[in-house]
Amino acid sequence: MASEDVKTSESAVSTIVNLAEEAKLAREGVKSPSYAFLSICKSLVAGGVAGGVSRTAVAPLERLKILLQVQNPHSIKYNGTIQGLKYIWRTEGFRGLFKGNGANCARIVPNSAVKFFSYEQASMGILYLYQQQTGNEDAQLTPLLRLGAGACAGIIAMSATYPMDMVRGRLTVQTESSPYQYRGMFHALSTVLREEGPRALYKGWLPSVIGVIPYVGLNFAVYESLKDWLIKSRPFGLVEDSELSVTTRLACGAAAGTVGQTVAYPLDVIRRRMQMVGWKDAASVVTGDGRNKASLEYTGMIDAFRKTVRHEGFGALYKGLVPNSVKVVPSIAIAFVTYEVVKDILGVEIRISD
After folding, report:
1. I want to staple 217 with a disulfide (CB 3.0 to 4.6 A). Which of 150, 155, 337, 341 is the partner?
2. Is 350 helix (H, G, I), strand (E, B) or coil?
3. What is the pLDDT of residue 156?
């Protein structure tokens, strides 16, 4: 009994000491390990929610964009945004508009979580180095430094979730009239691993990484720089009490998405086409009716660019740009605003505009 009392007393003393230490750290402005861990978790949750909400809202346009990117030029099924959406509705119904969205969300939720969190950490690290280099502790991130932080975040997030993106692309291009090789994301992953090997899960990774540098980098740089400019200059009465309205932040996100996706779009087209290489039913999936089963083969990114431009012209690098623009503008805007709103609800300090 005495030993149990001693253990109980020691446990109580240990708890009191830990609480005192955390209170001391809080008074000194230092975050305790448990607080830091909770903050990281909340940041990741906010990023994941932002990704899931924004992508589901524009899922039909995402699917149409990919179908336009990879369809055979000699067997055109989708001629534009409105016609393409109507065609999918008529041939596959409502569910056809959201085909591949489950796999897309399974990819985009962790991707978005890692991307936003990585941007926060990269921006803080870059800002610290910049302040040390300049000797000015009040220095703030420049648009170029934000671009660098966004590029780092994009590369980390893309690399971490790329296999999901690869199989999502294949799932998305399957139609009612094409052979169904994949029954779902996990079946697609296992089939690709078995038939094509683990390296196949990273087909198109290089153009993806090259494309994500300007895409994600410009998204963050334009969004944060616009917000800073609006808060400092206060044009048209858009700023009240140093805070931007949701509508204004949506507009900033829309502008960021437009700039980023226009610059990086050709690389996205090449990425999708490279992802089809090695899939034995890719030709019939792309044409939609089994005709013109020419093999889809590229030796690399440069070869894919060369063959696409030679056979289909320069405009082929921007196939699907219109539905993608209609998709990206609200998607990026919703993602940024949802992220900030969820972080406010969870009570986490937002640092992406530091």
Report:
1. 150
2. coil
3. 92
Token pair 């906010």 in the structure block, residue:
46
Conformation bin of residue 93: beta by default, left when phi > 0, alpha when psi is -120 to 50: left
Question: How many C-beta atoms lie closer than 10 Å to residue 100's C-beta?
Answer: 22
- Beta bridge mates, 1: none
d(CA 54, CA 339): 10
Distance CA 149, CA 159 (A): 16
Strand pairing class (239-240; 243-244)? antiparallel
Backbone CA torsion sign across 305, 308, 313, 315: negative
Q: d(Cα 328, Cα 332) in Å, to the nearest integer?
A: 6
- Out of 202-206, 233-237, 288-292, 297-301, the most confident range is 202-206
Q: Are 313 and 41 in contact (CB under 8 A)?
A: no
CA dihedral 227, 228, 234, 236 (to 10 degrees): -30
CA-nearest of 305, 206, 325 to 260 is 325
